[in-house]
Amino acid sequence: MLTSLFICQVSAADEVSVEEVNVALAKWGTTSTASSNYGPSYKASNILDGRWASRETDKWNSAATNEPHWVSIDLGTERTIHKIVIKHEGVLSDGDKYNTSDFRIQKGASLHGPWDDLVSPVRGNIDDITIHEIQPTNMRYIRVLIEKGAQDNNLYARIYEVEAYARIDRVDTLLDADFSANKYRNNEGTLETQARLNVFPVPTASKLAEMVLTVDNGEPIKLDDLNVWIPVKSDPIILSLAIQGKKIASRSVMPPKPLDWGYFADGTIHIICSSHNDIAWFDTPAETIARRDHACITPALKRMEERKDVTFSMENVLYLLEYLERHPEKREEIYRLTATGQFDWGATYNQPYEALLSGEQLVRELYYGRKLIRKMIPGASARVAYNPDVPGRTMQMPQILAKAGVPYLLLSRHKEGLANWESPDGSSILAWSMGLYVEVDRQNMLEGNLADNIATVKGQTAKWASDYDQRQIPADFAFLHSDDYISPADYDKQIQDWQANRSKLASLGLPKTYIPPTMKYSSPESFFDAVSAGSPSFETIEGERPNLWLYIHGPTHHKAISAKRQAGVLLPAAEIFSTVDALLCGSFNYYPDNELAQAWQASIYDDHGWGGVNGHVTDQVFREKLEFARDKGNKILNESLQNIATRITTDNSKGIPVVVFNALSWQRSDPVIARVKVPYDLFHMVDTEGNVIPHQVTVNSKDEISEIQFVAENMPSLGYKTFYLTPGKASSSINVSASDNKYENKFYRITFGSGGLEGIYDKKLEREILRADKFLGGEVFTMQSVGHGAGEFVEVQQPTMQGFEKVSSHKPKWKLEKSESGSVKTVYSSTQKLKHCTVQQRIVIYNNIKRIDCEILLIGWDGTKNREFRMALPINMDHGEVAYEVPMGVLEVGKDEIEGPSGGHSGGGSYMQPCKDVRPREVQNFITSSSEQFAVTMSSSVAVCDWVDPTTHPADYPILQPILLASRKSCHWEGNWYLQPGDHEYSFSILSHEPGWKNGYRFGIQANNPLRAIVQEKAERRAMLPPEQSFFNFSADNVLLSTIKKCEDDNSVIVRLYDIEGEDTSISLQSFFDIKTVQHTNIIEEEGYVIPSSGNEFKTEIGHHSIETFKLWPQ
């Protein structure tokens, strides 16, 4: 609506006559004040800027309810005004309901009044622009007094422009100077800046030829055009315009000094070009490999050949391997560009969910990242790790990176800036976050003209100047131009213009503070090296950032992630016993290097990009890789154990030898299953001393292979023990009491309720460990689970109570499975049909060791969307402290997370939730709840657990909850649903113990690392090994073994250890072979130095939380 209150309707073009001029503009020296303003960008001077394009920058907006609202202008001198025009909120779309309704236009004797109305008070205005014609009146001060600032209230006042018009013939010449060209020169030692004179009326060419300009009464300057050079001074200067000696206009102006770059003056702006990729997500892995070729890597090679200063970063080494498989002809070119640092590849194999991987799987990210590329390409660096997409960091990752020779981490979705991220042992890496990795690209931050880019760079560096100064960080600042699947950005012109401007300013001999920083293409490594120079005192970050995207893996891809977790157990065991096998042979000729490498790479192949376009294909590819890794690990392990078993001296007169192996680095007693073809009708188990070992036959199969279960007690660490299957029956007593709803042994008194366990009473601790008032122990329940695995959410999307169902509501009965129960264990089962599947629960209680297994089977899950299943273990604790295993460590909830929120933002908001409050969590082998009286440790076959009651009116005690399954959708708009129909199996082992997780963690790890039994069918003729042996012994209980393996580069033996309890330790390692030399190396087996050894032993120090790697040469 463009109508005048006092004249006929006008168009925007008709608003201003060529015979009049708006004198209420800041450029003519007019100033303004107001009753209040909403904020700095809504200041009163906006009504004098001649602009009304943006609500955020072009209008005056009062503060709320600060009445009366008014805005005043001072024309600077008295002028004869005949028309006033006001532009209200409606000049922009959808603003008409905020048009000023009631107001007065007044003239004043001063800015403080008194005020007289120039027109009748306006009431009920609905127009966007109001034009108020008055009798020509002399005035200097004008006020708009707002009595109703919007159509329905007076909360705020809003005005874009107040224009005051005078006839040209009644206005002296108006003069102003525009310095926006930002040009400077050194004129014989005087710094001058270019100004564009604004003169009104605009002079004709002949009139201009008559004009002269004087600056501060200096020598007259004859004007050829309106562009003039004016000296830069510390005080305002007077510009005077004259014709034939008569002054026609003057104006006081303040020529701007060159931009003061402050701390970043003469520094460096690094333009980093990178491309973020998932293995897939864009499409299937195969299609994405092709996309990465055509859209990222091949264009990057072309750009780098055309311009030698262009650098480009791909975030990991897997993409290099894939590209070279497609383009072997590019090998020499890529090797050359990589060796010079022009083409940068990240230090890891891919970009995983760090806390999902086992500790050794995380280490292999560096084996098949930095170590591999440095072996492939002499001169390659790979000193920067990338993981910009995943909002999660595990607390030992900085140590793993640092000890692999990777000092830098480029991340995202985290508080902006530079910080040392420190692991609990004190080792750290320098991390840099730009906020969100796509911002520079998607906001076109540096794609404007020179003036725009100067403003952008100045604005960004100004935010960090104080922090850089205080921390003494060198004046290097970076912009990361990255996005999904992109090629190198072309900033050639921007850099050229920037550098030309910089060179020009530098040539003027200005003080350093006015010299802009250099702008150049750069690699992340160059930027990190630059800011690390000297001794900056970076901020320090300590602890875990729990992953927000954890629903994408274990809960929504149960079978695939189960295979991954099993591979993480099997592959170190396969390495350990393959190494022992080779050492017993006296040669590594048959050590399965290649098979192990293939299996390790497959076990970490899945990155963070499950789902996406054609996600069903991607998910299947990932699952097949992980199942290959599991199966290959199992095969290699079995082969090595079979070989070792043939070298053990046995006594066939005692029966069939069964050799049990322990891959863990401590002595243990655990159940084991042997698959044996039994030639006897009656038999029993004995140890080498002839002591009867209670056993059960759990399976009699059609191929006459029986599964025989027994408890192997006091198993040697990293070794074996021999048992015999002996003919004849031997009695073994069972001191337990079992009925359909009660069980008791020397450890526990257990009560069964409908749907779970009502009670577990620990007889030694004299404690009831369950609180079953809301959930029963081992009970399964289901909720609605709407959300995605990954996405732009800033907190984990929690389940809700719609469709809530729990097994106990249906009152199922328990059955004592007498056919499965015996001298080793007692088994109970219960089955209940729920709406979307049938739940079968099995409780397995071991009669002679302190262990309860809870086995869950979801039968016929129908794949309904947005459902979630959990198991509950409610703990009878008022103030339980929760801890759980992370890769190569243990996290205590509320203590070991990074302090406060992570900061930074996603596409959907800011990450403001304190990290200690993030849940659920990624769990390795176990989770523990502990009080001052007792603790409970539960091993987990799933990757994600919670401990806080997620239901309405939550319980105030810990409820350990493995998340069994969730049917959510990929966050890609064309992505797949993660429905997982079919049957799903789970297993959890439970132990109550003395307070503190340190009293339960071995149990939690053991449950997921079962003993292995090998039936020795035939011993070697020259078998020399004793019936029982530990191949490696460690003197410290707090130090655990990660792996023992053949060295990647020679025939030495690698031993990797870590402290799990947070204690500095002196440790001795004893081996079954004599040691010639020992080196302490970094985590990827490089940069070793010799430490003393003697015979088959060496001693060393392991710091608290430390991960240490040693290289042993056999004698």
UniProtKB/TrEMBL annotation:
It holds the Pfam family Glyco_hydro_38C. Keywords: Glycosidase, Hydrolase. It is an enzyme of class 3 (hydrolase). Residues 11-167 form the F5/8 type C domain. It comes from the Bacteria. One of its GO terms (biological process) is mannose metabolic process. GO terms for molecular function: alpha-mannosidase activity; carbohydrate binding; mannosylglycerate hydrolase activity. InterPro entries: FA58C (IPR000421), Gal_mutarotase_sf_dom (IPR011013), Galactose-bd-like_sf (IPR008979), GH38_C (IPR041147), Glyco_hydro/deAcase_b/a-brl (IPR011330), Glyco_hydro_38_C (IPR011682), Glyco_hydro_38_N (IPR000602), Glyco_hydro_38_N_sf (IPR027291). The keyword Mitochondrion does not apply. Its EC number is 3.2.1.170. PROSITE patterns: FA58C_3. This is Mannosylglycerate hydrolase. It comes from Anaerohalosphaera lusitana. The lineage of its organism: Bacteria, Pseudomonadati, Planctomycetota, Phycisphaerae, Sedimentisphaerales.
